[in-house]
Amino acid sequence: MLFKRESFIGFDFFWYAVDSVGAVAQFETGYAPIPEKVFSNEQEYKIIDEYLSNLPNKTNTYLSPKYEKLKKRSLNQFQTFLEDRRGLYLFADDLHEHPNGTDEYELIVLPELELKVFDLPQKIQDYLAQFVFDNIIFKEVRKIKIANYFDFKK
Question: Is there a contact between 85 and 58 (Cβ–Cβ < 8 Å)?
């Protein structure tokens, strides 16, 4: 499979970014836009993804208010999100409201203790420096429109 956006349409794909105070988030999508820079170096992306995917659990997590309400109807669907306790925020495209994709990512999971970019190895920090949301603090937003921050491929 070629490492380009078109190869991952409809498949879960993860990428990572940092907010203006250094908190790290994982973005999950099958259809929403992904910054073009994510696909500039497959080997580097795989190293970053493997490192961040394998961080040890360190904190509790909770669902954003919208997803807390949805959890009452379908606990199993959200249990996996709650078991991920690496300290990352989780944003995803909302396929409940937009089954064919959307240009926005919605906050799903918040960590009790945030993973901060400056606690990561320098190589990871350098990579994530490409994906900083200036003027956004993850815990204070519910949705992020990627086009306002990055060039992307949908």
Answer: yes
pLDDT digits (tens, 9 = 90+) for 28-82: 988 888 999 999 999 999 999 999 999 999 988 887 777 665 655 555 555 555 5
CA-to-CA distance for 120 and 122, rounded, in angstroms?
6
What's the predicted TM-score (pTM) here? 0.87
Task: Quote the tokens at residue 58.
Answer: 């360190």
User: How far is the C-alpha of 150 from the C-alpha of 32, rounded, in Å?
Assistant: 13
Q: Are 20 and 131 in contact (CB under 8 A)?
A: no
14 neighbors 84 (Cβ within 8 angstroms): no
How far is residue 21's CA from residue 139's CA, in Å, rounded to a whole number?
10
Distance CA 63, CA 70 (A): 10
C-alpha 3/C-alpha 128 separation (Å) is 19
Domain boundaries, the chain: 5-146
